[in-house]
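Database export, one record per block. Field names are fixed; values are copied verbatim from the stored entry.
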Amino acid sequence: AEHPTLSSSMRETIKLQVLATPVVTPSPIIQAHWVSWVGRVVASMIAVIAIGLISQPVSADSLPGDLLYPVKLGWEQVELLITASPSARAHVYLDHTDERLQELDLLPTTSPLRERVWEQVARQLEAVQALHEEHAVFTDDIVLAERASITLAQLANRSEQALTFVDPVQE
């Protein structure tokens, strides 16, 4: 059985028809540039979250003036943002006040940063007092009232700075 052969003119006709047929490429469902862009955004978000999660425990022991101290304060703000009830927020403010008092114990007495720490203590106690005035948090939470009273007693023992706040237990 012999194979059929094509004449050279028939070959040329078939060749021209094949070359004249447009090449159709299937379009991808998702455009490559869009996938690339989304990939970068997702990778950036993962990096930010990972850095944030790593920075919190690393910055926990930082003191005023340390490189990671602003990160520590930022995490404290996040903690306040996600705390819903006024009583719980007052507890968080007192936690932060206790943290500032510990920082004062660790800072040299000649450090110019001490004044800033005292200002933070005052702002936090003012926030607790405002929560009490608006939501009566000391009335509703006796443990909070006692804790605030203890914090104020600790402040009274420090002669460095005079802060005046109403003692919730003495009211």
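Remark 1: The radius of gyration is 34 Å.
Remark 2: The CA atoms of residues 54 and 124 lie 26 Å apart.
End of record.
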